[in-house]
Amino acid sequence: MLKILWFVFKLLWRVLRLVAVILSLTIGFAWRQTLGRSNVYVRRDWNDRGLGRVRWADLYAPQWDTISGGTQVENPLPLLHAYVWCDKVRGNIGHSGAHGPGPHNIKVCMLRDDNSRRIWRRLLDLAGPDRRLELG
What we know:
By secondary structure, the chain is of the alpha+beta class. It has two helices and six strands.
């Protein structure tokens, strides 16, 4: 009887260790994909043709806002914005740097269509629920 209990205990212990390894691998992979190494695609304004790419770790203060960065144009709907240093942006976004030596802290706009579902869900978790459909 004792041998059977010992066998069951060892079997359960091995199963628990296997589950722990699988969870750590999948959670670790998801963390690396959303926090740090992943790219977030940004624009200077919602209708800007230029698209830039920044690392997740370089973005801060995501928020819903109707005023864009740069020319301070008012958007028709609240959109997701965040701040990033201009030298961290890869790609072609509307930032001239003409107002002084850089790097500059710039406000960028993030659109759902430009980013993956996983990145968008993480941005919504940080900024709060989608405010585009709220009525004034």
